[in-house]
Structure to design on (635 residues):
């Protein structure tokens, strides 16, 4: 569809399909909280705590969880927009920003992000065309070439270049702006695209169009998505694998159908039962969860879900559960959960 | 705004602002008045009817409309119209130059403070807070008093008065813009800080700072006149509106109209600057 004129920009697949595109190990980010003027004690928000996951090539990993659970922080850590306190990332076999690995600039060529706020993510003083062409020119593509490429991309995301190329963001609707953001993200052939609540601000019909566009582009360009959302329907539709986060930690992870059909963690179960049902007989009568998530500043010892969990045991109050296998599905994917309940049953 | 007939040829932002500005009668009248004043000042040697320094004891304080002296004469018998035209040169320079130089220095400092943030921000902003502790008139008087009278010294003094105000605006706008997603997107594309500032931040910061600076033009002119009035600006017999106001104050009881003339020019010029600034401000609001 799009002429691939810049082969230099496209980094080729090196590890083969079995090697995960992105491997994240023990990512950790604590934000210091400014306490009173005279108190010495430093406190931290445990935003992302030992998060590990991997994304296979050409797949979509959905990250779900309620607001404040660390989804977006995880995305920004992966994109290196903020630096992690600790943790490792491996991109297609290369350590990111470490000796012998790939440099940050190289890594960023391979990775792009689409943000939730379609208006704030476009410079109001640049035309659509300039916005899309900006990235490639940074990487040394001549301006006229970048512009013609931008017009092709506009065409691909469903905006007529003749009509839109020289418009400003404020002249576009939300859905159109998000298409522009997608076009910008694709401007130099990334391999991994982080979609951080990319469709959350759009209304349902536009949302569906944009989701379909994303699916088409994924097929067409062999993209891998990290899809962050709080909307379970959308995650179900988009993802191959799902990772459920609660208060900065991964509580469950597995193939999308496994998670949606046989959730293992009490939190995932509660989350899924909160999906509004089309069937009146299946209406949820009582709230699936009570209370609020605990304060992420100095979270409780043991399992972080203990105060809201209907199955809480003594063990949960003292020992924090680790992610363990529920079942192996095949060589590449497994269903893991961090809950004593499950581990107890397996013992 | 986006007329469909023009299709894809959306005009540039500043052209759009200009088009909008033309719709505002007050701003256009002000611009016309300022243009006349600037022309009169710049071409004073060719346009002025007399020599601004030629005094005549016989023709002291002639009333407005005397034959040969359209606006009368001052306390030394010099032609008022000529002196007002020549005086406009220095007064306009005193209005524009300090604001322009403060705009350049202040925007740069504000951008650096806002973009780098952290300790650099704290150092720059705290130092400027020291300047803020004094009222601007007092600060201008203090600085030019320390530097000594003269045109260039008062320009420096006025620049120093305006820098902190402009830095503060530039810094707060930069800090706001820096957190927006399109800056993150630019960082994702691997752009250098310099490129991000040039392409993404500058254009969005300049607008508000520019509007604020145009509002300072009249303040600067009035402050400069005040300095001259106090004897800290230019020295007599140099024609300058503030200084003329000072030397004519002895005539305020017998020829009040003549004595008020320089003040009237200061008033007209500063109100024209203010109305134009207001016009620019609302014209720039078309976007966002």
């Amino acid at each position: 569809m799009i002429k691939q004129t810049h082969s230099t920009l496209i980094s080729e697949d090196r590890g083969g399909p079995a090697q995960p595109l992105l491997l994240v190990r023990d990512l950790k980010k604590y934000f210091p909280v400014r306490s009173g003027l005279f108190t010495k004690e430093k406190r931290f928000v445990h935003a992302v705590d030992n998060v590990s996951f991997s994304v296979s090539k050409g797949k979509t990993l959905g990250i779900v969880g309620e607001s404040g659970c660390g989804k977006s922080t995880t995305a920004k850590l992966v994109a290196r927009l903020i630096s992690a306190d600790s943790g490792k990332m491996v991109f297609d076999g290369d350590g990111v920003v470490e000796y012998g690995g790939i440099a940050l600039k190289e890594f960023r060529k391979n990775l792009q992000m689409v943000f939730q706020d379609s208006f704030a993510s476009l410079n109001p003083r640049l035309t659509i065309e300039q916005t899309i062409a900006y990235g490639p020119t940074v990487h040394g593509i001549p301006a006229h070439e970048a512009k013609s490429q931008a017009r092709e991309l506009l065409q691909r995301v469903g905006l007529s270049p003749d009509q839109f190329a020289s418009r400003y963001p404020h002249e576009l609707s939300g859905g159109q702006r998000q298409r522009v953001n997608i076009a910008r993200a694709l401007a130099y052939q990334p391999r991994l695209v982080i979609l951080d609540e990319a469709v959350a601000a759009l209304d349902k019909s536009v949302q569906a169009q944009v989701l379909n566009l994303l699916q088409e582009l994924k097929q067409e360009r062999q993209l891998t998505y990290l899809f962050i959302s709080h909307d379970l329907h959308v995650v179900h539709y988009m993802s191959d694998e799902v990772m459920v986060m609660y208060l900065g930690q991964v509580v469950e992870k597995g193939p999308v159908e496994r998670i949606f059909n046989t959730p293992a963690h009490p939190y995932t179960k509660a989350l899924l039962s909160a999906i509004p049902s089309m069937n009146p007989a299946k209406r949820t009568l009582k709230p699936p969860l009570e209370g609020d998530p605990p304060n992420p500043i100095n979270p409780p010892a043991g399992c972080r879900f203990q105060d809201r969990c209907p199955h809480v045991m003594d063990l949960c109050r003292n020992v924090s559960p680790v992610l363990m296998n529920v079942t192996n599905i095949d060589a590449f994917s497994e269903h893991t959960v961090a809950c004593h309940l499950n581990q107890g049953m397996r013992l | 705004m986006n007329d469909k007939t023009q299709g894809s040829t959306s005009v540039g932002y500043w052209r759009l602002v200009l088009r909008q500005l033309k719709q505002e009668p007050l701003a256009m009248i002000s611009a016309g008045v300022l243009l006349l004043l600037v022309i009169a000042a710049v071409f004073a040697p060719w346009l002025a009817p007399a020599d601004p320094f030629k005094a005549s004891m016989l023709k002291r304080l002639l009333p407005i409309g005397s034959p040969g002296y359209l606006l009368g004469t001052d306390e030394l018998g010099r032609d008022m119209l000529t002196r007002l035209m020549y005086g406009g040169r220095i007064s306009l320079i005193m209005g524009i130059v300090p604001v322009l130089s403060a705009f350049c220095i202040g925007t740069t400092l504000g951008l650096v403070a806002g973009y780098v943030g952290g300790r650099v921000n704290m150092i720059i902003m705290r130092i400027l807070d020291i300047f803020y502790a004094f009222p601007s008139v007092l600060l201008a008087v203090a600085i030019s008093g320390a530097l000594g009278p003269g045109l260039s010294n008062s320009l420096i003094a006025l620049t120093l008065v305006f820098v902190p105000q402009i830095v503060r605006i530039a810094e707060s706008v930069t800090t706001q813009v820096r957190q927006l997603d399109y800056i993150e997107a630019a960082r994702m594309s691997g752009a250098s800080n310099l490129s991000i500032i040039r392409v993404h931040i500058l254009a969005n910061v300049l607008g508000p700072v520019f509007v604020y600076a145009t509002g300072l033009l009249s303040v600067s002119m009035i402050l400069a006149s005040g300095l001259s009035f106090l004897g800290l600006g230019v020295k007599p017999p140099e024609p300058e509106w503030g200084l003329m106001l000072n030397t004519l104050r002895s005539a305020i009881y017998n020829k009040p109209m003549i004595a008020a003339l320089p003040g009237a020019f200061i008033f007209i010029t500063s109100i024209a600057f203010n109305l134009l600034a207001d016009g620019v401000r609302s014209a720039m609001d078309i976007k966002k």
About this structure: Confidence is low (pLDDT under 50) at residues 1-10 of chain B. The first helix of chain B runs from residue 13 to 21. The CA atoms of residues 139 and 147 of chain B lie 12 Å apart. Residues 34-52+64-284 of chain B form a domain with the MetI-like fold fold (CATH 1.10.3720.10).
